[in-house]
Amino acid sequence: MEGQRKSIHLFDLDDTLIRTEARVLVRGGEGSVLRALSPAQFTAYQAAPGETLDFHEFSDLGILSRGILVKYTKSIIDTILKYGTHSEFGILTARADKKLHAPFLIRLFKSIFGVRLSNELIFAVSDTRFSGYKDRGALAGNAPFASLSVSQRKALVIAQDLVGRGFNDISFYDDSRENLDSFKVMRQAFPHVAYKPHFIDPTWKARLGEFRDSRADSKLLIKGASSVRIILEHHSPYGADQQEAMRMLEAGLPIRLDPEPVAIVQEDGRFYLRRSPPEARPDQAG
Ligand SMILES: [Mg+2]
């Protein structure tokens, strides 16, 4: 495959592109509502025996249109457009009912970004018509599409509906690592495809928690000062007023973060997350 790049920026919907108040309701045997899950909670939720999941809030276009565009993701799209792009844009969501969502999403992209979102690049992997279409095209004996996990369905769409249509440069933005990793584990099957997963974590909350819970002592902040500013704003007492914090880092002093015991340090012009050193003890001095 010489030369010809065919690229797409593909966005998850809930908690990546928009944040909505819609909830997945968990109902008990008698139909009573046991809990209400955000899209992020739903991704990791295992229903207990006797529980049923009620998605009716996600069928309400009113709720979808009251969703708030995630600012961080909007700025990613603005940046892509600012530098000019021949890429396509697409949506890959766990939601059902594409017919309901597609006109809204097409209007959203047109009005906010001036981008023409093509209906055929909007994939709603819980849509029953879409499952039917996938199952008709599948080999006999394959598991029904609807029986796969959300992340498996997303990976299949990338492999079949995007790579299958000639896309060979695929950036995928999602707030679920499981969804991002799902195609990653099979990408060796497609050596000509450049796959670029982007974890959407606007305030660094998930990544700081992951660092704290890992065994690592240090993690390089690849994007440097721009990441440092976001982390300081959301996880340090400096908030949006960061000049003093940046001066301290410059002077070689660590900035402790919430969650403890994570700190930011600057060394040789690069920024790192570090497990913050234990308080200096006199017997260690000298
Ligand atoms: Mg999501």
Task: Using brief descriptors, characterize the structure shown.
single chain, 286 residues, 2 domains, 4-stranded antiparallel beta sheet, globular
Can you tell me about this structure?
With 286 residues, the chain is an alpha/beta fold. The protein folds into two domains: 145 residues, 3-Layer(aba) Sandwich (Rossmann fold); 69 residues, no CATH class. The protein has ten helices and 14 strands. The chain has a five-stranded parallel sheet, with helices on one face. Strands 11-14-13-12 form a four-stranded antiparallel sheet. Helix 7 links the parallel strand 9 and strand 10. Helix 6 crosses helix 7. The chain is globular and about 65 Å long. It starts with 6 loop residues before the first strand and ends in an 11-residue tail after the last strand. The model has no long low-confidence stretch (mean pLDDT 89). Bound molecules: magnesium ion (MG). Magnesium ion binds next to loops.
